[in-house]
User: What shape does this take?
Amino acid sequence: MSFNVISGSIEQGLVFAIMALGVYFSSRVLNFPDLTVDGSFPLGAAVTAALITQGWAPWMATLMALGAGLLAGASTGLLNTKLRISGMLAGILTMTGLYSVNLRVMGRSNLPLLRQPTILTRLADYIGSDLRVALIAFIVISLAVKLFLDWFLHTELGLAVRATGDNPQMIRSQGVDTDAVKVLGLSMANAMVALSGSLVAQHQGFADVGMGIGTIVTGLASVIIGEVLFRPRTVFWATTSVLFGSVVYRIAVFLALRMGFAPTDLKIVTAALVILALSAPVLQESLALPFVQGIRSLAGKREAVSTSVKDGRPL
Assistant: This one.
């Protein structure tokens, strides 16, 4: 299988990796079950498509989408910290409200970007060729987001975010406002998700109100697959594993389609991949247990034989 055949899957994996980094930030770093993702992803696409069709510059539309994601995450954070609504329910409420917001922003359920300038077309015009422009652009942007996240999580504020996710009582006793940190963390996570939605809309050429359905599952699948493959122990390797996990997930989906699965089967394929990734340690241990027991049994017999020889007893 040539690189050209799977290059499209790699492009999708890289652009969705930005969303997966947002899911990693909220679920792993902040330890918050944020379901806002299913609403903030199409929000980024809707804002970008609406502004581009109104004549805005693509990069300005992308920045506005990032800002919209910030507001979406802040809404969930405020519902949780100020109104004391549980984290999962706060995310569901925000996600539900964003469906109407996205429809209002676009004016209809689907908004095409045909013959409209995008970041990718502008790059192609600047370079003079559209050969793998999307692949290069998504590599640069995803790495930039990853490196920014690596840097931020090692700053004083980033360490406060990590501590809030690990032990909020402890960090609260040190005088840190955990509510403000939680709102900030959710805002940043959903900003990354909205940025991913904006880039996906510009890559695919349209924004759709239903394009965020199952986004949280896709993001968690990328995070889990990356963790199973890399077993990261530092922030750098954790974010790196998310990038590779997203690409591996997209390639797995591509292979499933090549094997004859229908596009309508992708949800069950995703569920199977997540189950396999989550159960990998258990399966590995189960498969290795008989082998280990056999080795221990053989070692025990050899030790018994050696002892009998030393003592002069018959075997």
User: Anything to note?
Assistant: The longest strand covers residues 110-112. The mean pLDDT is 88. The chain has two domains: 3-260, 267-310. The CA atoms of residues 150 and 236 lie 6 Å apart.
